[in-house]
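Entry: STAS domain-containing protein
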Amino acid sequence: MNTPKTGRGHDRVAVTETTRTAASLETQLLHTSSTASATPSGSGSITLSDEGQARLVRLSGDINVTLREQASAVLLQVAMSTYPLIIEMQDVTGIDETGIAFVYQLAAVEDEGHQPIILRGAPTTVLATLGDLGIIDKFVIA
């Protein structure tokens, strides 16, 4: 069976598996998080832009389930690019399990491409959660 290839040479099956893993992580977080709220509040945004020879994913405001469409669009574009990734979190005011799952998905896509992932300005609560999940080593903290 011939599977269409993405711009990075990964097949759609790999992206689907990454999405399934992230969905599993999201489910796990829903059951184990005692501080995250399932009720969206405030507003936030997820954007993708270029920063020199890197892609910049900027998260700002409340990163929650209401941003799922933005997250999906950005994730697809990241998966099809070959440039290193910077995740800017300096302006994040809140993040729920869906937001953490999105950061995990970005790491999983980049891990497949063996690209460094710079996590810039992440709140200490996010760093602690990524550490608790055992994935903090996938990031270069700046």
